[in-house]
């Protein structure tokens, strides 16, 4: 794992602001927005002092390891043969027979097109291929996997603010991300419509970055998005057997695995 310290130098460890962001995300995933808000506020307000900032150009986030937007990332190197590329293959290839080199769903394409989100679509989807495949977001096996970046943290903060009744402040945070994507400010104004707007923004901002599934599970919208009922067993991943054995089997496997 790697991160930027306050001087912007890779340290190989999580900095305080990275820990705050990951803890804030954990509280959001638990539905505890009251505890999530102060941690995420500290990330957003303390970003500049920690050498963290949104990339002005969305495309510059990717293929540019340890840039200013990255709070925490997993370093990937082709020089490491054992397990090299595992994270990339898990999210995008799955090592199965889905075929067509990381196919993109029509639903995601439509979501970009309906919002006229050209900036992020061009980075996310390679439209020149015979099939729609992952674009320049992930174009190298050596590219670090982004665990948390400031754009994600800002949207999580917006979500926490909105759920805690501070909808105007949430809109301000949401519009930071929309502005970077060259989109107009959101037209959402109520807590309900802003909730939907944030969810939609996360889908496009973080497309193919490994956040969508968890967002659907925690918001109770997985079945609707998939068009079928998904067993709750698969709302969580299996635990590594190595950890189960290391605990003397005090830790037990999640149901369904």
From TrEMBL:
* Limits of the RagB/SusD domain: 134-223
Q: Which Pfam families match?
A: SusD_RagB (PF07980)
The record's keywords, sorted A to Z, are:
Cell outer membrane, Membrane, Signal
The protein's predominant localisation is membrane
The protein's location, in the record's own words, is: Cell outer membrane
For this chain, the family text in UniProt reads: Belongs to the SusD family.
| Name of the protein described by the UniProt record | RagB/SusD family nutrient uptake outer membrane protein
């Amino acid at each position: 794992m790697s991160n930027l310290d306050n001087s912007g130098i890779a340290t190989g460890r999580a900095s305080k602001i990275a820990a705050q962001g990951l803890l804030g995300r954990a509280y959001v995933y638990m539905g505890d927005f009251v505890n999530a808000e102060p941690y995420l506020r500290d990330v957003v307000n303390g970003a500049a002092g920690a050498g963290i900032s949104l990339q002005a150009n969305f495309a510059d986030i990717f293929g540019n390891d340890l840039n200013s937007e990255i709070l925490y990332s997993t370093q990937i190197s082709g020089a490491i043969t054992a397990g090299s590329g595992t994270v990339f293959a898990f999210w995008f290839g799955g090592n199965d027979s889905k075929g067509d080199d990381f196919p993109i769903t029509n639903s995601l394409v439509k979501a970009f097109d309906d919002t006229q989100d050209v900036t992020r679509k061009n980075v996310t989807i390679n439209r020149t291929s015979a099939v729609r495949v992952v674009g320049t977001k992930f174009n190298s096996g050596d590219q670090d996997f982004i665990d948390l970046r400031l754009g994600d943290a800002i949207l999580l903060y917006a979500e926490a603010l909105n759920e805690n009744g501070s909808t105007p402040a949430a809109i301000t945070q949401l519009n930071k991300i929309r502005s970077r994507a060259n989109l107009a400010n959101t037209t959402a104004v109520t807590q309900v419509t802003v909730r939907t707007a944030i969810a939609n923004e996360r889908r496009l901002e973080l497309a193919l970055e490994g956040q969508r599934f968890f967002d659907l599970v925690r918001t109770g919208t997985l079945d609707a998005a998939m068009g079928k009922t998904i067993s709750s067993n698969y709302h969580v991943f299996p635990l590594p057997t190595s950890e189960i054995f290391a605990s003397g089997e005090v830790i037990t496997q999640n149901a369904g695995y």
